[in-house]
Design goal:
heterodimer, A: 267 residues, mainly alpha, 2 domains, two-stranded antiparallel sheet, globular, B: mainly alpha
Chain lengths: 267, 165
């Protein structure tokens, strides 16, 4: 970097810092005192106040809308890929083909390594779960807004940041493990699976807690005006991306692990 | 319910998950995995074909090597046999040559002996003739033939032997 460029860089940084400082000083007297932080936190966890109308049939938490939106996004993406990309697959893959093959290969490999006897269904499930958790968590970053029944609007959260979404994921994973037990060991497999009755609860709350903690930290950062400049950009993106990756990995790995354990034929 | 847990919403999420599972399985997971498996199978088959071809080539190589060794052995045997034949032939030729040479020498010796005998006989004959002629000349030139004859006869070795006994 030559001297001229360095000077320009320093001036730009100074300007940005000055604007942030001015913003902090100018808004210093209004630190979100209308709604106490306790209420904000409670709302982030329970979603009791902001409910959304679902197809005119019922009112639901925003996470349900998020879940169906995520599914719609994935469906459109998968359809485009299926129609336009997959028929043009070549033996030597291009960048996008490589990405798809890697995504499928990672989950297929995870299923094969944990349950060598039965891995086709498991591979498909962990691929779905991983994709859902990753895309669902990243969806939060878009910050899509939806109208609430009370007339306001709410930013759509990650589907699994809602306890109901996390429970359904945990229960579904448990059902998949149970199906593996039945397929592999019949009654014995069922008993083996039922032995770990705490599994759906632990899976659900692990997922919920992990995603919620990220959301709470981000809420806290947003709540106090002095930390609501620049910092949220890093905090929100970092927490969201880390959770997206870590939770996708943890849940799929645990499911594959338990599935492999219960469907292995006992001597 | 505590924590805003709602069974209806759980079922909605579950329905959504099953729907997503079906969509992803049909549209993405299965086609991509099938493609990967097909390609893997093709490469495996190609690898197997290569291994088979390599194995065949190895077998052929071994066969050729064994044939080569066999041929070399046969050549060596043939060479040894030919060498023995040549040696025997050579011995035979040399033996024949010796025999022929001996015969030639023998013949030459016989011939020489005969020639020698013939020359000796001839020489003897000639000598006898010369002696006879010389004697005749001497007798005719110097007197009494009878005396001379007796003298000559008396002096001859044959007469002496007869007298002695």
């Amino acid at each position: 970097m030559d001297k001229k460029k360095r000077t320009r860089f320093i001036i730009i940084i100074c300007c940005i810092l000055a604007v942030i400082l001015a913003g902090i000083i100018a808004t210093g007297g209004h630190s979100g005192e209308e709604e106490p932080v306790k209420m904000v936190m409670k709302d982030a966890v329970l979603h009791e106040s902001a409910r959304i109308n679902f197809l005119g049939i019922m009112t639901v938490n925003p996470a349900v809308i998020s879940a169906y939106t995520v599914t719609a996004i994935i469906f459109v993406f998968a359809l485009i890929v299926r129609i336009f990309v997959i028929p043009k697959f070549t033996k030597i893959p291009g960048k996008f083909q490589l990405l798809l093959e890697q995504a499928v290969g990672i989950f297929d490999g995870l299923a094969t390594s944990n349950s060598p006897q039965r891995h086709k269904f498991l591979g498909a499930y962990v691929f779905t779960a991983g994709t859902y958790i990753f895309v669902g968590t990243m969806f939060e970053l878009i910050g899509a807004m939806a109208p609430t029944v009370s007339g306001g609007s709410v930013a759509l959260p990650a589907p699994l940041a809602d306890i109901n979404g996390a429970i359904s994921m945990g229960v579904f994973s448990y059902c998949v493990i149970l199906s593996g037990g039945i397929a592999g060991n019949r009654i014995k497999g069922v008993l083996n699976t039922l032995k770990d009755f705490s599994l759906p609860i632990s899976m659900s709350f692990r997922l919920f807690g992990a995603l919620l903690s990220g959301a709470l930290v981000t809420e806290l950062v947003y709540y106090y005006i002095t930390t609501s400049f620049v910092i949220p950009v890093f905090v929100a993106v970092m927490f969201t991306m880390l959770h997206a990756l870590i939770q996708a990995y943890v849940l799929t790995m645990l499911t594959a692990l338990f599935y492999g354990e219960v469907c292995t034929k006992e001597e | 319910m505590p924590l805003n847990i709602d069974p209806q919403q759980i079922l909605l999420h579950l329905f959504n998950l099953i729907l997503l599972f079906g969509i992803l399985y049909i549209l993405l997971y299965k086609p991509v995995r099938d493609f990967m498996e097909k390609r893997e199978e093709e490469y495996r088959k190609r690898e197997q074909d290569t291994k088979d071809a390599l194995s065949d080539a190895e077998k052929l190589k071994e066969q050729y090597e064994s044939k080569l060794i066999e041929a070399e052995r046969e050549t060596a045997d043939e060479r040894a046999k030919m060498s023995a034949d040549v040696e025997a032939e050579r011995e035979k030729i040399i033996g024949d040559a010796h025999e022929r040479a001996d015969k030639i020498v023998e013949d030459a010796r016989d011939k020489a002996q005969k020639e020698h005998d013939r020359l000796i006989a001839r020489a003897q004959g000639e000598i006898a003739e010369y002696v006879s002629k010389a004697a005749e000349k001497i007798v005719m030139r110097e007197g009494d033939l009878e005396d001379d004859f007796d003298t000559f006869f008396e002096s001859s070795p044959v007469k002496k032997d007869t007298d002695n006994g």
